[in-house]
Design brief:
Length: about 260
């Protein structure tokens, strides 16, 4: 029987100037794909360079974590950007990060929206299409990582891009398969036992337990851990241990056939 293979992704490069967020050096040793900030919601040029160098040295896949232009709000506030402007913003971020990735001896292999843009691309056709248009314009070999069933992944697949669904180890879900808003109590999971159980269920194909107690089916090729969650490194280790305990192995989805 083939060993189930799944990607483990996390957000990196979210420090800014003298302000440090997360432990990228430790996290890079656990994950297989790094969603690196591109400077719009977090990250400055030197931070982006260091993050790409860390990923390249560890053999970790580099993804562009694009966002709204919202440093003050960490990209977690919806901005009603015109699709043409959003397309150009995403294209700008892709090019910037890919420059640093190539300087480090690697390259950007996928894109994942961050924060409010991630959620907007679930059901907002204009925003989802703008992201996909930017990816297709820049490099149609790039994959797009997002929420299962989202318009983002549907738009990506419709134009021939690789659409990769993901699940979250450290977030609670709602009954409709979305993520519980961060403004709600318990939206972010930090308890190791609960995270381990969520990973076990995902690996077993049992879905996740939503905030109302119902079971939500979630099919994913990648599992995400947020780099800014308290204890992110230990959470990532717990997730990786849970994957192997379930008989699986961790490998970047960009290294596997689509």
């Amino acid at each position: 029987m083939a060993v189930p293979v799944i990607d483990l992704n996390a957000d990196l490069g979210e420090s800014f100037g003298r302000w440090t967020l997360g432990d990228d050096a430790a996290l890079i040793e656990v994950i297989s794909s790094a969603n690196i900030a591109c400077g719009f919601h977090a990250g400055d040029p030197s931070t982006l360079r260091r993050s790409c160098e860390l990923a390249a040295a560890a053999g970790v896949a580099i993804g562009a974590q694009v966002a709204y232009r919202d440093l003050a709000g960490f990209g977690r506030r919806f901005i009603d950007v015109a699709p043409a402007e959003l397309r150009d913003d995403v294209l700008y971020q892709l090019g910037a990060l890919d420059g640093f990735a190539r300087a480090a001896g690697s390259r950007v292999t996928y894109l994942k929206p961050h924060g409010a843009l991630y959620h907007a691309a679930v059901g907002n056709h204009g925003q989802a299409k703008a992201i996909v248009d930017a990816v297709r314009t820049y490099d149609p070999t790039l994959a797009v990582l997002g929420q299962p069933g989202s318009l983002l992944l549907k738009e990506a697949a419709a134009v021939g891009l690789r659409a990769v669904p993901e699940a979250f180890a450290d977030r609670r879900y709602t009954a409709d398969g979305g993520l519980l808003p961060r403004s709600r109590p318990g939206a972010v999971l930090t308890d190791q036992a609960r995270i381990a159980e969520q990973v076990r269920r995902l690996m077993a194909g049992e879905g996740v337990i939503a905030d109302d107690g119902t079971v939500v089916p979630v099919s994913a090729e990648s599992i995400c851990v947020h780099g800014d969650t308290p204890g992110a490194v230990e959470i990532a280790r717990t997730v990786r241990t849970g994957i192997t305990a379930s008989g699986g192995c961790v490998q970047a989805f960009t290294n596997l056939p689509s």
